[in-house]
Amino acid sequence: METIAAISDYYERGGEVGRLRAGRGRLEFLRTQEVLRRLLPPAPARVLDVGGGAGAHARWLAADGHQVRLVDPMPLHVQHAGAIDGVDAVLGDARRLAEPDAAYQATLLLGPLYHLPDRRDRVTALREAARVTAPGGIVAAATISRYAGLYDTLVRGRYIEPEVRRITDEEVVTGVHHPFDQDLFTLAYFHHPDEIVDEFAEAGLTRASRYALEGGAWLFADRDGWLEGDERTAALLDALRSVEQEPSLFGISSHLLTVSVVR
After folding, report:
1. Which of the residues in the chain have pLDDT under 70?
2. Does some domain include residue 202?
């Protein structure tokens, strides 16, 4: 219950509603969108957006012609997402989806795995995603890099603060992010790039492919103008696409997207 309360308190502040529209969040959004557009079945596909927040991705999915159902545990997020044309939004838990077997052609978990520190819960959420996805459909899950907190606190100058350094050093070892103030995010789990493939496999999702979303560009793109003009932004996206599946660079990316076809 403590875990749920800490995460709920963070999201009830409403910061997630507009996070993907500006700064680093915009780069995460653009790269998630372009990778998914390459991998999703042609529209109209039935897409389940699990932990879809306020509907940032559900909005463009619906605009692309997909049939979108969003599931999220936060009433505030469901309220916002439910107001988007073409999006059906309901309350729910990634570990216990109230959805029939093989009902969707794509199931997305673009947030839930961040907030499940227990591996068993993460595997359960992935199993549920596989269960509700028809054979031949895809399951795609986003994870935060084990090293994102370290680079984030260095870039923001907070690593020199003793308590920030303590929790940051600890999460590099354990993956569990235990913040003491909400400027440092909320309780979360940061994956080593290799362990998500093992979790997919344990859930019955084999031959998983990983995509580094922001690469190292999340450390500078919003400050150096790479997201302010069509030409510069297009060049940045081209560059990131060229190295998105280079394993030696996975750890520097803030987020990975892992995808598997349900068999």
Report:
1. 1-6, 8, 10-11, 13-17
2. yes
- Contact between 75 and 93 under an 8 Å Cβ cutoff? The reply is no
Residue 137: other Cβ atoms inside 10 A:
23
How deeply is 101 buried, as exposed, middle or buried, from its count of CB atoms within 10 A (0-12, 13-18, 19+)?
exposed
Residue 173 lies in a domain: no
Query: In CATH, what number is assigned to the domain containing residue 227?
Result: 3.40.50.150
Residue among 219, 208, 215 at smallest CA distance from 261: 208
Per DSSP, the chain holds a count of helices (H) and strands (E) of 9, 9
Domain that holds residue 104: 2-145+191-261
The C-alpha atoms of residue 99 and residue 129 are separated, in whole angstroms, by: 10
Q: What pTM was estimated for this model as a whole?
A: 0.94
**CA 62 – CA 45 distance, rounded (Å):** 10
Residues 6+ apart with CB under 8 A from 109: 50, 51, 94, 125, 126, 129, 139, 140, 141, 142
Report yes or no on 22 lying in a domain. yes
Tell me the pLDDT tens digit for each residue of 128-163.
999 999 999 999 999 999 999 999 999 999 999 999
What are residue 104's DSSP bridge partners? 133
pLDDT at residue 10 in the model: 67
How many independent structural domains does the chain possess?
1
pLDDT tens digit string along 212-234?
Answer: 999 999 999 988 889 987 899 99
Which region, left, alpha or beta, applies to residue 255 given φ > 0 means left and ψ of -120 to 50 means alpha? beta
In a domain, 178, yes or no: no
* Tokens coding 105: 């052609």
